[in-house]
Write a structure and sequence with these properties.
Strand order of the largest sheet: 3-2-1-4-5-6-7-10
Binding site for substrate: 105, 131-133, 188-189, 193, 260, 287, 446, 452
Binding site for NADP(+): 12-17, 35-37, 77-79, 105
Strand content: 5-15%
CATH superfamily of the largest domain: N-(1-d-carboxylethyl)-l-norvaline Dehydrogenase, domain 2
Number of domains: 3
CATH topology of the largest domain: N-(1-d-carboxylethyl)-l-norvaline Dehydrogenase, domain 2
Number of helices: 19
Radius of gyration: 26 Å
Organism: Corethrella appendiculata
Number of strands: 14
EC number: 1.1.1.44
Shape: globular
Largest sheet: 8 strands, mixed
Enzyme class: oxidoreductase
CATH class of the largest domain: Mainly Alpha
Helix content: 40-55%
Distance between the termini: 64 Å
């Protein structure tokens, strides 16, 4: 075995870990592989890593001894306790200035805590989002590192060498301190939930209109040549086209969706920060509803929907409406995601580069699309842009396509076809563009039953209470905004 010291170590030899190691090796870095089950290391070295410069370790001490200083160790293990367990085992073996990188889907609060705890011990922590699946890990993922800023110069060369590229630009840049990297990855995953749900709703509408799978596949193939050009649209066409010995596979897949929690975390974070990330929330709830398969089958035999069936006079035109509706809703999804990033940045004092984040998502990751180039351009034009919907490019897109969007949502409602993400996005758009909403009545109700006070137009900042019944008195409860 070579006595050469490794540039970086990676713990966790599941498929993602193996592919990331092979990626690093192909870019000229010497990597030390370790797994808690040491037999996996031996198997990896004798098979996938055979003929490479990759070296193995039989223990954490052996791994640490084989690393150049300052040591750089990347964890690709299950989020949660496993990460903390490995960190605790590594701490006695490391020196000040060494770097621990968590590349799993950790919650951003855990990353912020680990960053602070390790900083106190002189260890540099990085919480990095890694997106792109197995193929991305092997040939170029999107990487979103955050944590202790002193770690970035030490890992930058490796990370920007192995990541995907958009043109000449690496799809990896420093995100921010503490849990910023994992927060950005969480929002990425939430947007991924939204994109997937929107595509599923378009597919459902096509089914209702009687399109064959081949016709649907062809439609998605065409869509992928225009503004919807993206990885998820591309694979949807592939999935619809896929056949095995029994015919089209998709028709036989059970309609119950799973989730690993990151979409839910995005929705929870949105509630925590008070940001109306409604589309992603609906995407999460749609997966929850799909899981009620047995209940839905029973309900389908008892609950009656509209008598009219899905029917249009011009199918080709309506498919164009669906495409345009999907485009509009997708814009809203990203607008909401970036709203959440901005609010979190304000609270946690992160200096997020929103155009840079769009660039990081432009290649390698699951939500990669041509559309992200437009988002990057919007933030280049105005780094202080408060909402993507206010950028001239996206304003025009909404103006040009919203009639299609309204046609699709209204017809879906009349046909009894659920389009929760498409309709939630439209409701948000109409709410966001409204100079007045009925929250004045809501404030009056709160003051009526709870003396919670309200502000008058033109007298903002002064909270008043009305004795609505003549029996309630003039003492207000508080001015809290719940």
């Amino acid at each position: 075995m070579s006595s050469q010291k490794a540039d970086i170590a990676l713990i966790g030899l599941a498929v993602m870990g193996q592919n990331l190691i092979l990626n690093m090796d192909s870019k000229g870095f010497v990597v030390c592989a370790y797994n808690r089950t040491v037999d996996k290391v031996t198997h990896f070295l004798n098979n996938e890593a055979k003929g490479t410069k990759i070296i193995g370790a039989t223990s954490l001490q052996d791994m640490v001894d084989k690393l150049k200083t300052p040591r750089k160790i990347m964890l690709l293990v299950k989020a949660g306790n496993a990460v903390d367990d490995f960190i605790n085992q590594l701490l006695p073996l490391l020196s000040k200035g060494d770097v621990i990188i968590d590349g799993g889907n950790s919650e951003h609060q855990d990353s912020a805590r680990r960053c602070d705890e390790l900083k106190a011990k002189g260890i540099l922590y990085v919480g990095s989002g890694v997106s792109g699946g197995e193929e991305g890990a092997r040939y170029g993922p999107s990487l979103m590192p955050g944590g202790h800023p002193d770690s970035w110069p030490l890992i930058k060369d490796i990370f920007q060498s192995i990541c995907a590229r958009s043109g000449n630009d690496p799809c990896c840049e420093w995100v921010g301190e503490g849990g910023a990297g994992h927060f950005v990855k969480m929002v990425h995953n939430g947007i991924e939930y939204g994109d997937m749900q929107l595509i599923c709703e378009a597919y459902h509408l096509m089914q209702a209109l009687g399109l064959s799978q081949k016709e649907m596949a062809n439609e998605f193939t065409e869509w992928n040549k225009g503004v919807l050009d993206s990885f998820l649209i591309e694979i949807t066409s592939d999935i619809l086209n896929y056949k095995d010995d029994e015919g089209y596979l998709l028709e036989r897949i059970r309609d119950t969706a799973g989730q690993k929690g990151t979409g839910k975390w995005t929705a929870v974070a949105a509630l925590h920060h008070g940001v109306p990330v409604t589309l992603i929330g609906e995407a999460v709830f749609s997966r929850c509803l799909s899981a009620l398969k047995d209940e839905r089958v029973k309900a389908s035999k008892q609950l009656v929907g509209p008598s009219r069936k899905a029917s249009v006079s011009d199918k080709k035109q309506f498919l164009t409406h669906i495409r345009n509706a999907l485009y509009c809703a997708k814009i809203v999804s990203y607008a909401q995601g970036f709203m959440l990033l901005r609010e979190a940045a304000n609270e946690y004092k992160w200096n997020l580069n929103y155009g840079g984040i769009a660039l990081m998502w432009r290649g390698g990751c699951i939500i990669r699309s041509a559309f992200l180039g437009n988002i990057k351009d919007a933030f280049v034009r105005n780094p202080q842009l408060s909402n993507l919907l206010l950028d001239d490019f996206f304003k025009k897109a909404m103006t040009d396509n919203q009639e299609s969007w309204r046609q699709v949502v209204s017809n879906a409602v009349l046909w009894g076809i659920p389009v929760p993400a498409l309709s939630a996005a439209l409701a948000f758009y109409d709410g966001y563009r409204a100079d007045r909403l009925p929250a004045n009545l809501l404030q009056a109700q709160r003051d009526y039953f709870g003396a919670h006070t309200y502000e008058l137009l033109g007298k903002e900042g002064k909270f008043v209470h009305t004795n609505w019944t003549g029996k309630g008195g003039n003492v207000s409860a508080s001015t809290y905004l719940a």
